[in-house]
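To whoever is covering the structure queue this week,

Two jobs came back overnight. Logging them here so there's a record in the thread.

Job A:
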Amino acid sequence: MEDAPRIDSAQLMELLSVSLGVYYGDFTAAAASENLTASQGKTLTVLRRGPVAMRALADTLGCDASNVTGIINRLEKRGLVRREASASDRRVTHLVITPEGEQVTDSIRAKMRATQEGLTRLTDRDRDCLYALLERVFVTRGSCRSAESEA
């Protein structure tokens, strides 16, 4: 009996590219349905995790701080975020999502039909495994254990 061919990194990267393309398109359309750009929607999802300094948000979004200022100005005007001075350093401004911003973020995620449908096709075990794998690849980079040690 022959072993199944191994999936190499290039194949994984290609599948990730396709997956992220579908996710980004789905996210962009859902954000647009809330009259937001993809960058504004992404900003809300980042802020949903907790308050963030302007500079750190720019780094996370991969853009210049001046771009973040424009994004935040528009979100603040809609009441979706607010600025707060740092208690420890008055030069630092923290960005905080408002309850209205949280509702919009929930609405965007609920409208991501292609993504929701794909995830719904997975079993609970598959979702658990996907979560663990994505976390190992993208979140806890230094603490991955080998598949053999987990068996």
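Job B:
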Amino acid sequence: MALAASEGTALLMALDVMANGWFIGETGLQYRKHQGQTTAHPDHRSGAEWEARMAAIRKHAEVLARRHLIT
């Protein structure tokens, strides 16, 4: 999914709707953030661009879920 940010979120949501998962007792994903990166800026988590990005991710996940239920 071509997004300005949150590509990882989109990928994880797509995987979530396509297969059952399980919890493990150890860290499986580690995300490091530094001050200069886009996701560290407050605008990354709010505002019109954030809303549009989350709407695109939700729509993509919903379509994948419907297709997965059909096949």
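Note for Job B: The chain has two helices and no strands.

Please reply-all if you pick these up so we don't duplicate work.
Q.
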